[in-house]
Amino acid sequence: MDTSSTLLGIGLLMAFIAPVGYLLVDQSRREKARMKTLLAAASRLHLELSKTEILTGLYLGLDENQQKLLVITPEKKKKPEVLELNGSKVTLLKKYHKDHSTASIDELRTVVLQIDSQKSSTGLNFYQSDSDPVTEKGLRLQKAMEWEKLLQDFQKIK
Question: What's the rounded Cα separation, in Å, for the pair 90 and 148?
């Protein structure tokens, strides 16, 4: 009786732990593939990335020596975008659901890092309420603020 209940307990434990383990391994594998995609694009474009960031729908890499930002989105995975940072203006844009917002993170709808240069204007979508999970609002806002500060500090140094 003790042996069968022990085996049953171990079996049930494995039934609940195995899916969690699979999810962790799968997420790690996907993150490595994303990093490989970012590094391969950087080497094709002759960039040496000093800082990288991988989010679900946005891969970023900064080359401080050449003053360029590598941007890869799922829609443009085959054609990565390289932004010139020399003389660019970086602005963080946040949109909320209500017009008279209390600036609560619960009402956050969109987080976009706007990079304006002489040649073009590009918006990097860090968070879209339509497509990104609600649980990532705070993380995405924090990452956008980190990149805004990094790029603004980078502009001051150069």
Answer: 6
Q: Give the angle subtended at the CA of 23 by the CAs of 17 and 27, to the nearest 5°.
A: 150
Phi, psi (degrees; rounded to nearest 5) at 58: -155, 125
As given in the structure block, the two tokens for residue 96 are 């909320």
Report whether 145 contacts 113 (CB < 8 A).
no
Contact 135, 106 (CB under 8 A): no
47 CA to centre of own chain: 19
Q: Supply the pTM of this predicted model.
A: 0.78
Separation between Cα atoms, residue 59 and residue 5, nearest integer Å: 49
Q: Give the span between the Cα atoms of 139 and 56, in whole angstroms.
A: 12
Average pLDDT of the chain to the nearest whole number: 84
